[in-house]
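Q: Convert this sequence to C-alpha cells.
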Amino acid sequence: MTFRPSIDWSDEFFNSTLWVLQVWVITAVSLLVVLVLVGRMTEWGRQFWRITGDYFKGRQSAPVWAVVGLLLLSAILVVRINVLLSYYANDLFSALQVTFQPDSARNTGIQGFWATILVFAVLAVCYVARTLADLYLTQRFIMRWRIWLSRRFIDDWLDDYAYFRSQFSRRPIDNPDQRIQQDIDIFTAGVGGEPNNPSHTSDRLLLFGAVQSVVAVFSFGAILWRLSGPLTLGSVTVPRALFWVVIFYVLAATIVAFVIGRPLIRLSFMNELLNAGFRYALVRLRDASAAVGLYRGENA
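A:
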C-alpha cells in the first residue's frame, strides 16, 4: 500500500482558477436573472427597489457593482478553498495510515505527510488572505450603502416639513428617528435583527450567504455523490443512499426553519416598536427632568 494524493496538487492552481472563473460567470448571470424576477414579481422585491434602487443605478453605481462582483468572487473562492481543504484532510489521514504500515511503503507515507502539510500551509495563507480582503470589502460596502441610504431618508424627512406634517397624518410614523438610525443599519447589515458588526464578512449578507450556500451544496454534493454507496432496507436498495439522506435532511430543516421563522417577523417588528417607544420615553424624561423634579412627577 503506497500513498497517493486525492488530486494532482501540481495542477490544482490552474484548475481551481479556471473553476472559480467559470462558476463566477454562471453565478453572476443566474443571480442577475433571479434578482430581476424577484424585483418585478414579488412585493418584497418592489419595496426593496423603491427604497434603495437608485444606489444601484447610473454611472455612480459602477464602484458599487465592482464591489458586488468582488464579494461574489470571494463567496465562490471560499467554497473552493473549503473543497480543497477536504481533499487535504483526506490526504493527511491517508498519509498517516501509510506511514504506520510496517512495510516498505512507509517512506511514501512520510513524504506524502510533509507534502500534505505544505499544501495546508498554502491553503491556510489563501484562506486568511481571502478572509481579510472579504472583511474589508464587506464593511466598505455596508458602510457606504448605509451612508447613502441615511442621507436619502434624512433629506426626505426634512423636505417640505415632513417631520412636522407627519404628526397630523392618519397613520403617524412611530419613532422615525429610530427608524432612520437603527432600521437602516439592520437593513444594510444583511439578515436578521442585528446591526452591523466590524467582524461581519460577506456570508452574513443575505445575498452572498445564499450564493455561498448554493455553490457549496453543488460542490460538496458532487463529492458526496461519488463517496455514497447503496443502502439496503429489507428488499429495497437505495443507490447513493447517503446523498439522498443529506438532501432529505436539508429540505426538512429548511421547511422547519420557514415554519418557525415566519412568525418571528411580526415579533421582531413589535420588539423594535416597543423598545423604541421605551427609549423615547426615557429621552423625554431627561429633557423634562427639571419639570418632573419640581412637580415630583416620577410616579406619573
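The longest helix spans residues 106-158.
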